[in-house]
Automatic annotation (TrEMBL), chain A:
Name of this protein: type I protein arginine methyltransferase
Biased composition (Polar residues): 1-10
Species: Elaphomyces granulatus
Annotated InterPro entries: ANM3-like_C2H2_Zf, Arg_MeTrfase, Methyltransf_25, PRMT_dom, SAM-dependent_MTases_sf, Znf_C2H2_sf
A GO MF term: zinc ion binding
TrEMBL record, chain B:
Record-linked PROSITE patterns: SAM_MT_PRMT
CDD domains, sorted: AdoMet_MTases
Xref: Pfam families: Methyltransf_25 (PF13649), PRMT_C (PF22528)
Domain (Protein arginine N-methyltransferase): residue spans on this chain: 174-336
Domain of life where this protein originates: Eukaryota
Matches recorded under SUPFAM superfamilies: S-adenosyl-L-methionine-dependent methyltransferases
UniProt protein name: Uncharacterized protein
Methyltransferase domain: residues covered: 72-169
InterPro entries from the UniProt entry: Arg_MeTrfase, Methyltransf_25, PRMT_dom, SAM-dependent_MTases_sf
Region (Disordered): 1-20
Any one GO molecular function term: identical protein binding
GO biological process entries: folic acid biosynthetic process; methylation; mRNA export from nucleus; negative regulation of termination of DNA-templated transcription; positive regulation of transcription elongation by RNA polymerase II
CC terms in the record's Gene Ontology section: nucleus
Amino acid sequence: MAHSESSSGILDTASDAGWEDVESDDDSQPIVGLFSTTVYPDVHSMLKESRDRHNFDLVKVKKELDLDLIETIKLVNYIRSQVKAGNLQPNVSSKSLFDEDLYLKPTLEDDALLYNLEDLEDDVGTVGNTKQNAEKQVVELQEELDRLQGQFSEYRSAVQRSMTEQLSLEDETVVPDPATGLETVDKAREADLDYFSSYSYNAIHESMLKDAVRTDAYRDFIYDNKHLFKDKVVLDVGCGTGILSMFCAKAEAKLVIAVDNSSIIEKAREIVYENGFGNVIRCIHGKIEEVSLPVSKVDIIVSEWMGYGLLFEAMLDSVLWARDHYLTPGGLMVPSHVTLRISPFADSDLVCSQISFWKSVYGFKMSSMLTNIYDEVLVSPAKPSSVAADSVVFLQLPLHTASVEELTFVKDVEVTLTKDIHELDGWVVWFDVFFMPSHTSLIPEDAVPSHMKRQGYVAFTTGPDGPETHWQQCLLLINHGKDAVAIKKGQVIKVQVGYRKKEEKSRSLDIEMQWDEGDAGKGSQRWSLQ
Amino acid sequence: MMNGSTNNTATDTPWTSSSADRMAGMDHAEVRYFTSYDHHGIHEEMLKDEVRTKSYRDAIYQNRHIFKDKVVLDVGCGTGILSMFAVKAGARHVIGVDMSSIIEKARQIVAVNGMSSKITLLQGKMEEVILPFSKVDIIVSEWMGYFLLYESMLDTVLYARDQYLAPGGKIFPDKATIYLAAIEDGEYKEDKIGFWDNVYGFNYSPMKEVALTEPLVDTVEMKALVTDPYPVLTLDLYTVTPADLAFKAPFSLTCKRSDFIHAIIAWFDISFTACHKQINFSTGPHAKYTHWKQTVFYLRDVLTVEGDEIVTGHLENKPNERNKRDLDIRISYAFDASDVARHAEGRCAYKMC
């Protein structure tokens, strides 16, 4: 069933060396109160409590007496020693009261407040803006309330819908099956699909996060290019658990809008909050085409939209829609370019073992199970040795300019066999992803990720020569229905390959091919990814 | 890695890459739409599970004297393999019932193998199809799910038994036992649960909470076992009722050595006692790999145990009230160590959905 653990073996999230600086700037330390033994999570909350409960404003005193850092340290130790001696209202009318070197020695051992005095300036700003902040907070809370109310009414109508469906299901009439003369229930077939619905909620996200080729590439591009993200407004289309949004927040984006139509957004919201990005990242539940964003334009769109064979799931449609509606002129698409590659495939062991298995299962013929193998794209890792030619690019999509129409296409390419093969067993298709730093950047037509990386760019391949990713490769197996025809090294094969969405709004995909192997013959076939 | 089979999964079944990997972001209807591809892979995985398929084959082929001229009902027949075994063993007629559209393939397969006149295939729910016989002599069914009971068809088998099995009729298989044991699994627990503490430098604890409530179906190595197995529940298919499938049963696990306990695992054994010579198979960590693997329940705490000490507790299982197919599982445990500092007790709730 759906529970596949295959990804965990190939993944190595330990290769994070070099990012410690980015990831460990959490400097909030518990602070002991000036007038009590209460421990506060940060300076700000301790100072607020001092102001509110003890009518003592450290920041104000510091400002009024015009204290430098050393003098402020003395002030803190002076106050602490006075409080320790029982005086809860120490006299701070003049600098001279605590201008003695003995107050350089901490009164309180490991006093975290002393390490945080430099930040007091920030607090001055906060004090001055409290009213403004409070107003902003009210507005935010109002928005939150609206959102929750919206969600509740959505939920209510969803419950109503599903109840109606339930009732109509029960009302459904039993019809005789003409083939058997027996009664069967029409909907039974649909019901059994339910049976295979996702087994594990976490496993999907776990496998994507643990796909280090994928996640490292986004992280590397964002962290290596912080200057591009600093103070920018970023839109994350299909944010999942929010990892890319948090990368952007760490890179000091001003605002990140994270949109996802799945209920995972609730977890993303919690995760964002847990990591202290609640005021930078806004999580919005819904389809990008339907939700309303808090801004009219964004500077950057980041998205991990790639599906099997690149275009399965058709999520790119939504990303391009978002680009056309929200990306400011000159804004950046992350990633910026993708290419699709194809190569002939020959792996007789694999094909034979499959076919012979269904030809005799415990002594029974089950060849009718074979049809699926030739009708459907098989998502599976291809052995590097099964790739029989240098791959060729049959589509390059520059994400800044590509249109939805370009996602249905027919292309002509040629491949040259680099070895003798027993038979052309099929085709292997994969994609490469490139992260260029500007909307005007170009990549060579036959760009190779490893070459681009040597030039300092971020890129990755999902091909058989690279480390395994959760996308694996797409295998299109040829149904020869005749004896094998060997083909020699050097043979040129002319290939026409087309991608076509099955129908409007469908996520599934047809791949159609025609090929001409010269003397070895010709062929054409169609596979679907569903 | 303790649960060492993770990579094998991909190579064992290269054609069954699950679309679940890419289901994130889809709503339920879409997920349903995409799972049709999995059908093929699932049937392949089950047929290639030799422990499973050979046990059924042997139980049927070695008992031709029991099957000869009998009417057999195959509940959840899938590709029809068990029905065909029964015909080969001399059954007079076999009725295969399955809700899934796989039955169309089964029809083609049965025809190609020249058994159309011996096997009647019906698509639909057991409760709704009309059988060409009012009683059957033998029920065969491969109904077991992960943790024996998750998405299992046992309810359907019991309905078929009550409705159609002739007095003195036989059920293949007719006995199932769930076992528990505790394992040391520090490294893998860190990989599966600890992973969420730090994801690229971020705190993913909301996902960790979910992870702790999801039993993990995975292969456990024999050497990870810290305790002896304990048979926590035995089902006799001639007498068990659907109500018995919601149960609370005590367990007592005796430690074999000084070690840590990170998880409790469950597996099941299956017996065909109606055979002339009883046939059994186990899905435990000591036995050959099956597609059921084992089910791992991570505990929040780590127990520090020594040889001969005993961890006691209760395993509780009931179908979820809203979705009967989901299981609500609870494990409570108490560990009275010889020194108080190691004493531990806890109660963990899991959901298989």
